[in-house]
Amino acid sequence: MTEYIVKLRFWLRCWDSMTIDADNDADAIAMAPQVAREMMRSWSCPESVEADERREGLISYIDRVDTEGRNEIAEAIEFDGARALFPKAAALISRLVQLQVDDVRGEGNLRRLLAGFVLEARDISPNVPPWSGSPERGDS
Prior knowledge:
Blueprint: E1 3-15, H1 25-41, E2 48-66, E3 69-77, H2 87-98, H3 107-122
Antiparallel strand pairs: 1-2, 2-3
């Protein structure tokens, strides 16, 4: 029997914090983006990592390992149950990709369609919703 290596990549939810000194609330809010940029560039481990919140899974590659060595046989494979990192954004992008602008009749209809997409985009939360516990659902 031949051995295969399946490499999976995914996103995890992590949290970190840093203490700053500021003269007042407004200064702390103004300093926070720079602090966040520094924390994002950090190589240190974050304070908290939720390993059970894996999202946006993608099989990076599958390698066959045999007497001839290790050879890649497939790469970048999507699979059911990968749970989107931002499910509402993924759904909106999917709808936009399928849109056939030439099929929309009239400028008024096109404007209404565009206005609907804009409202939908504004409703997308920048945070990942809590996990429903159902890995089969792609919208949690």
